[in-house]
Amino acid sequence: MKKIIVLIAVVVLGNTVYAQSIPKWKITDLENYIENCNRPVIINFWATFCQPCLKEIPYFISQVKKHEKDSIAFLLVSLDLEDYYPDKIKNYAASKKFNVPIVWLNETNADYFCPLVDESWSGAIPASLFINNKTGYRRFFEEEITEEKLEAEIVALIKL
Question: Distance between CA atoms of 7 and 15, rounded to whole angstroms?
Fold first, then answer.
């Protein structure tokens, strides 16, 4: 009986560490976040059904952690369907132990919101935006980024 109780406690507590609320944002909320971010930031646009997205997220998380001293903010912006919000997104993130901020972009018109993120964005994912408001650095990638390319981009992002 003790083993069962311990097992249940481990499962519940383990999931609680990665459980988080996922706010619903409009594009104006994202624009405001970008405009007011006072440290280097990486914003990754993804969805639970996008295999290239899911492949790159773990090394985004590990690279940001590796550069912890550089105070890089990292935000996952889910472009999942409305039916996936919030449970499927939250459950997936918990199962993969994504311990980073996640928001769900409550927008359906890519012709409206994509150009507000970057003029070149067709809406394909994965997509990533690297911004450092202090240095004026801004790069957008509409592709899966390799870990090596990510490392180089982070170095450029934090360079003064």
Answer: 12
Which residues are CB-contacts of 122 (< 8 A; sequence separation ≥ 6)? 114, 142
- If you average pLDDT over residues 35-60, what whole number do you get? 98
* CB contact at 8 A, 42 and 73: yes
User: Considering only CA atoms, which of 85, 114, 110, 96 is closest in space to residue 23?
Assistant: 85
Coil, strand, or helix at residue 40?
coil
Q: Read off the tokens for 1.
A: 């009986």
- pLDDT at position 15: 38
33 HSE (CA, 13 A, CB side)? 22
> Using 50, 70 and 90 to split pLDDT, how confident is the model at 18?
low
Residue 7 pLDDT > 80, yes or no?
no
- Domains, the chain, in order of start with CATH, read 21-158 (3.40.30.10)
Mean confidence (pLDDT) of the chain: 90
Angle between helices 110-117 and 27-36 (to 10 degrees): 0
